[in-house]
User: What shape does this take?
Amino acid sequence: MAITRNGCEGCTEITCGSTREVLGQPLAGKVRTAYDRVEARGMTACLFGSGGTCCRNCNMGPCQIIDGIEDMLGVCGANADTVAARNFARTVAAGTAAHTDHAREMVRGFIETAKGHGPHRIKDVEKLKSLAAVFEIATEGREVNEIALELGEKALAEFGKQDNTPLTMLKRATPKRQALWNKLGIAPRGVDREVVEMMHRTHMGVDHDYKNIMLQTSRCALADGWGSSMLSTELTDIMFGTPVPRRAIVDLGVLRPDQVNIAVHGHEPLLAEALCIAAQEPDIQELAKKQGAKGINLVGVCCTGNEILMRRGIPVAAGFIQQEVVLATGALEAMVGDVQCLMPSIANVASNFHTEIITTNYRAKMPGGIHIQFEEESPLESAKQILSRAIKNFKKRGEFFIPEEKKLDVVVGFSHETINYMLGGRFRASYRPLNDNIINGRIRGVAAIVGCDNFKLGDNAHEIIARELIKNNVLVLATGCAATALGRVGLLTPEAAKYCGESLAEICETVGMPPILHMGSCVDNSRILIAATEMVRQGGLGEDIDDLPAIGTAPLWMSEKAVAIGQYFVASGVQVVFQDLPVSGAKEFNKYLLEGIMGSVGAHWNVAKEPLEIARLMIARIDAKREALGINKRAERVLFDMDMRRDLTTGGIPGVGCHGPA
Assistant: This one.
C-alpha cells in the first residue's frame, strides 16, 4: 500500500496535522523519509517472508517452502509448519533479547546508585521494600542503600541463573497460572538461558515439532514479561520515582525557536535522566546563554520519550514513524540516542541541516553519526559532554520550521500504584471499584493498545480502535508509541470522556481520569500484567488472568519486541490481536496460534486487518469472557444506607463500589 505526504485515492493519508505541516514545507523537500521510501518501493512484501516460510537457518538454502507440496519442502525436509514455527520463535527470542539487554543495563545502573555512585538516589523507598519482600530480602532496621544493593545483586543474578528453579518474579502471578506454567514446563529459569535455548532449538537439525517449539517460545517470552521487563520497570521506578499523573504535551510543536532543542531517542532511561539533570546545571545553562539561546529544551522521541514524559512531564515530540520528521524541521541541534528503534536513515536526514545524530551506546553506532559513549560510572559527566556538543550547534542553525503547538495536552503517569490509589484512595488503595464496575457492566472490560507505529496502516489506526472501544464502555490502557499516537489526538485527557459510552463516561468524570490510561514505554507492559493479576486477586472475575474480560492489541507492530510482548501476554492468559503475523504460509501452525494454543495456556492469538475490525473483535472477545463469568447482564444499582456506609466490607458486593453507590 502506498503512502503519500498529501493523500490520494488508494493511498494511506498522513492524518497527523503536525507531520503534514512539516513535510509540506519547502525545507523538507530536500530530505527523503520513510514515507518517500515506502511510496517509491511500488511493490508488496515478499510472500514467503510474510508467510513465515522462508528458511535461512543453514547454508543448504535459503529454502522457500510451499505448504502441502512435497517438492517444496526444505532441502533438509523441513515443512512449512516447522519453518514458520522456528522463524516465529526466533522473532520472540530477538525481542526478548532486546528487552533483556535493556533491563540488564537498568539493573547495573541501579546497583551503581545503591553504592552511592552518580547523581541518582533511591526515590521510592516503599516500592523498594515491597520488591525486596518478593526476593525475600530483610528490610527491618537496614539502610535504604543496603537493601537496594542486595536487591540489585539478586536481580542481576536472575539473568544468568543456571539451575532449574523459576525466576523469582513469577511468584507475583496467580497461583493457578504458576501451577499451569509448571505443569507445561514453561516456567522460565535464567532469562539469558531461555534466549540461548530458543536459538539452539531452532538451529538446523534440532527441534522440528512446532508445538514443542512453541512451549520454549512461551518460556522465552515469559522470561521477558515476568523477568527482564518487569525487573526493568520496577527498578526504574524505585530509582527515578514511580510515575504519578501529570499533564504534558505530545506534539512536534513542542520545539522552541529560541532554545537549544535536543531530542532524546531510544529506550534506556539512564541516559535520559542524566541529560535531564545535567541540563539544569548552572555551567550548562550558562553555556547555552553564551551561544545566544534562552535555555535548553529537551524533548522525547519513542520510548525514552515516554519514560521522561511519565516521570518528569517532559514533552514528547515524536513517535517512531515521526523521528525523521522532527529532524526535517531543521530546528534540532542534536538527536541523542542509545538503543532500539533508531532508523539508520536519520543520519542522512540530519546531514541536510546543522543537526547532529549523537549515539551513546557501544552496541549501537551509526554511519554519519557522532559517537560519545555514555559512561554509567560517570553519567553526569557524560551527559554534560553530550549537551555541550549539542549546545554549540545552536549558532549554526539555519532555516527551520516549527509547526504551531497543538493545545491538546495529555495526562500520563498511570502506574499500577497510581491506579490503585486513584481507585481506592490513600487508606484503601484497591482495584475493588474497577472489578465492581466490570461486574455490574458499567465498564464492559479492559483493553490494552500497545506497541509500535508502522507505515503499513494509516497513522490514525490507533485512534480508530481506541474511539470504538471507549464508545462501547471499554477502559483502555496504552503504552509505547501507541500511547504517543493517542496523545496526539487528544484521547489521553479526562475531557476525552465525552467520546465514551454513557457509563464509562460517568466513571471517568467521577474519578477525574482519562478513558485511556498512559502506562509508560513498551518495556512497561509488565505493569499491565501486574494490574491484571491484581484484578484476579480482588475477586469476582474468575481465578486466573484468562478469565478476565480483557484483551490486548499491537495493531501497528513493527519490531520483534512486539511479538515477544504478544507471546508473553498469550502465555499469561490474555488474548491479543495483531494486524498480521508472519505465519500465514503454514496452515497447521497458523491454526495452532489462532486456535490450538488456547487449550494449553488459555489464550490465543487473533488476526484482523482493519482498525474497526480489530476493535470489534476485541469487544466480541470481551463479551465472550463476560458471558463465561455470568456477568453479561447489567446488575441493579445498589444505594448505600448509613449502615452500609459504615460497613467497609461492602466493597465485595456486586454493584457496590468502595466509595458509595455503583
In short: The radius of gyration is 25 Å. Confidence is low (pLDDT under 50) at residues 1-11, 648-662.
